[in-house]
Amino acid sequence: MQKEELLLQKRLIELSNLAYQRNITTYSDFLNLNELNILQVSPKNLFPSGYETFGGYAYAERQMVSFLPDAFSCTDRKNDIASHNTYHYPIQILKIRPLQKKFSDKLTHRDYLGAILNLGTRRNKIGDIVILENETLVFVHNSIADFINDSLSRIKHTSVSTELTKQEEVNYTPRYEEITGTVSSVRLDSLLSLAFPLSRSKLTGLITGGKVFVGGKLITTNAYKIKESDIISVRGMGKFMYYGVLSQTKKGRLYIQIHKYK
User: Fold this and answer.
1) Does 256 share its domain with 182?
2) Are residues 111 and 146 in the same domain?
3) Could you tell me the residue range of the domain that residue 61 belongs to?
4) Which tens digit of pLDDT belongs to each residue from 154-187?
5) Burial letters for 132-162: b for 16+ Cβ neighbours within 10 Å, e otherwise?
6) CA torsion angle for 18, 21, 23, 28 (degrees, to 10)?
């Protein structure tokens, strides 16, 4: 690991020790895919307390880690949204709307992020940014939520209004496109070719270049076998879930379905 990665691992271990020793729940800041991978590949015996990850909604890319005292450690609750709210993750949701939609710029993820960072905030305090038809949801750390809400009034040339909402008050479900097709096997490279219209050489370059994550874990092998419900994230391109095999052709190819998130 590089120096920054070792420092992050050390910080996560400290949070785990604190949760274990004081019997409290501790939280990291928002972690990106590379940082979550450090957690995934670190030996489990480094963390005396159990942990879960959550980013404010199901399948969030940027997530916090909660280190749990024994009373809350239960793997059966890992993907239960209600259980995440039990731990009171320090996340609020900033809703951003243009004051005059008719005259507003067509704002991108980069525009929203740039405007927020220009206020002097740090990237690890900001989670996912979800652009919807009539508003944009920004998942932010409690410690900066009020500041951003009070300070953000313009993005590029567009005047905006902001409103803070607690995470449990927003029932956001990611939208996705169902894609079906035939593959020879459920290898990582085969599924990527179905999800993204790129040449095999470019797809291979994404994998070997360290840009593909499965369930938050960095995967650099083309032949990695994907399991049902696995979430595959490709940095800079998006993510999808492998739904499963629908049928098999006479020639032995697999007819599969994936859900590509919008």
Assistant:
1) yes
2) yes
3) 3-86
4) 999 999 999 999 877 787 888 999 999 999 999 9
5) eeebbbbbbbeebbeebbeebeebeebebeb
6) 10
Q: How many domains does the chain have?
A: 3
In the chain, the N- to C-terminal Cα span, in Å, equals 33
Interval 133-162: pLDDT, tens? 889 999 999 999 999 999 999 999 999 999
Instruction: Render pLDDT for 9-42 as a digit per residue (tens, 0 to 9).
Output: 999 999 999 999 999 999 999 999 999 999 999 9
- Count CA within 13 A, CB hemisphere, residue 200: 5
Last residue of a domain, one of 71, 86, 101: 86
Q: At what angle do helices 188-195 and 200-208 cross, to 10 degrees?
A: 120
Looking at residue 16, which CATH number applies to its domain? 3.30.1370
Do residues 81 and 96 both lie within one domain? no
In the numeric block, the tokens 């800079």 are attached to: 236
Note whether 155 and 186 are same-domain residues. no
Residue type, 35: E
Residues 160 and 99: beta-carbon distance below 8 Å: yes
| Residue where a domain terminates, one of 114, 147, 169 | 169
Task: Round to whole Å and give the CA distance between 157 and 141.
Answer: 26
Chain segment 75-122, per-residue pLDDT in tens: 444 444 445 544 589 999 999 999 998 888 899 999 999 999 999 999
